[in-house]
Design goal:
- The structure is a single chain.
- It is built from 16 helices and no strands.
- By secondary structure, the chain is mainly α.
- It has one domain: MFS general substrate transporter like domains (Growth Hormone, Chain: A, Up-down Bundle), CATH 1.20.1250.20.
- Helix 1 packs antiparallel against helix 9, helix 3 runs antiparallel to helix 15 and helix 13 packs antiparallel against helix 16.
- The protein is globular and about 55 Å long.
- The N and C termini lie far apart (42 Å).
Length: 411
């Protein structure tokens, strides 16, 4: 195992070193750049290289994302029970393997539908294994309130993550093999940042009992507000985030006759909107009632999706994609910050693994449903369910969830 310079372990109450948050930001930012490129590559290999129809592409995404669902709960257990620095370093190293494997397969002329599916499975599984620990460590390396911490992290990772989309847009110029090697390089460089984190042993409050994959689910269920946030987030991810992941590539290629460069530009514009939302949020944080903002933005999302459904001109399409990014960036940050704030340290990584599970489990389901819908109708039709779901979230969330009344502890 790669070892870095040894540091004294932090106590449960001591402030982390001032450099800890900077090194932490560097590691997930490079990771996000690699995963942003992965999102581009997986979709474009199916749509732009292999020329698969929407229902087959949706099925491939579902196949690639179902196995990591179980791995995610295991990641939550490990996140509460292992040394964070060592574990994240190992994950960076493992993440370099799949891109190099696919580069070799492509070089041999063997790239096929099932090799792309395997590529997606491997990358998503390692991502799922590492994410709970990465999210949980955030609370241990920051010196500021969790709302601003999550927001700063989102800004940094989004900014660097756009590098991945840019590299994807250069696919026709650089070639697939070089882009895959650059992807592996992003994860490898992030390893050195992870090694500079302080010693992050298992929390003294972490359970010493036998590991139980259901403990995180039980902890979420027993906390009413966390349970409701996760439930509403699942609904939102199902047809709002799902529409972005599944429908946008086909809107680009079929509605706007775009190529890889246009698709990459759309992803950059969306990500810039998400990053911009967090820059604005940072100016007003800490927010007293973050749940109210989450609910009110569901109404504006309905309008954004409606305008996109109307098939605007390309310049207006970019504006609406940017607005969609602003909207989704804000709601995602509100959800993550609130769950981080509410989750007890004993089960924090496992609770965060369930939150991440709500993001992930919605993707394969929506990939199948929206993929079939697109094949039967048109890519724009996949935006319609998100309008209705946004309205449901606003009404049910406002009346029943407790989000409207919730007051942040950091205010």
């Amino acid at each position: 195992m790669i070892t870095g310079k040894q540091r004294e372990p932090m106590s449960a109450t001591a402030l982390p070193p001032r450099s800890a948050f900077s090194w932490y930001l560097t590691s997930p930012s490079l990771w996000m750049a690699g995963m942003s490129l992965q999102g581009f590559l997986f979709t474009w290999l199916l749509v732009g290289v292999l020329d698969r129809p929407a229902d087959e592409a949706g099925f491939a995404r579902s196949l690639a994302e179902f196995p990591p669902l179980i791995v995610l709960l295991l990641g939550g257990i490990l996140g509460d029970r292992v040394n964070g620095r060592t574990f994240l370093s190992l994950m960076h190293l493992l993440m370099t393997v799949p891109p190099l494997l696919i580069a070799m397969i492509f070089n041999l002329g063997l790239l096929s539908y099932w090799w792309v599916v395997l590529f997606g499975v491997l990358m998503a599984s390692i991502q799922a294994l590492s994410d709970p620990a990465r999210q949980s460590v955030l609370s241990r390396v920051t010196r500021i309130d969790i709302q601003r911490t999550v927001t700063v992290m989102t800004i940094a990772t989004s900014l660097v993550g756009m590098t991945g989309f840019y590299l994807g847009g250069q696919l026709d110029v650089l070639g697939l093999e070089l882009v895959l090697m650059l992807q592996a390089g992003l994860f490898f460089i992030g390893l050195f940042a992870a090694q500079r984190l302080p010693h992050l042993p298992m929390s003294p409050m972490s359970p010493r009992s036998r590991p139980n994959v259901g403990a995180g689910i039980k902890a979420v269920w027993e906390h009413r507000l966390i349970r409701n946030i996760v439930g509403l987030n699942f609904l939102s991810s199902l047809f709002n985030a799902g529409a972005y992941i599944v429908a946008v590539p086909y809107i680009v290629t079929e509605v706007y006759s775009g190529d890889a460069a246009l698709f990459a530009t759309v992803l950059i514009v969306f990500t810039a909107g998400g990053m911009g939302s967090n820059v604005i949020l940072l100016m007003f944080m800490p927010l007293r009632h973050p749940g109210r903002l989450f609910l009110l933005l569901q109404i504006t999302r309905m309008l954004i999706l409606f305008l996109l459904w109307m098939q605007p001109s390309l310049p207006l399409f970019y504006v609406m994609i940017f607005a969609w990014g602003l909207n989704m960036g804000t709601t995602t940050t509100m959800v993550r910050a609130t769950v981080q704030e509410l989750a007890p340290a004993t089960f924090r990584a496992q609770i965060l693994s369930v939150l991440l599970l709500s993001f992930m489990i919605s993707s394969p389901i929506s990939s199948i449903l929206l993929g079939v819908l697109i094949s039967a109708t048109s890519p724009l039709t996949a935006l319609v369910p998100g309008m209705f779901i946004s309205f449901v979230i606003f009404v049910v969330g406002g009346l029943k969830s407790g989000l409207w009344q919730y007051t942040s502890r950091g205010y």
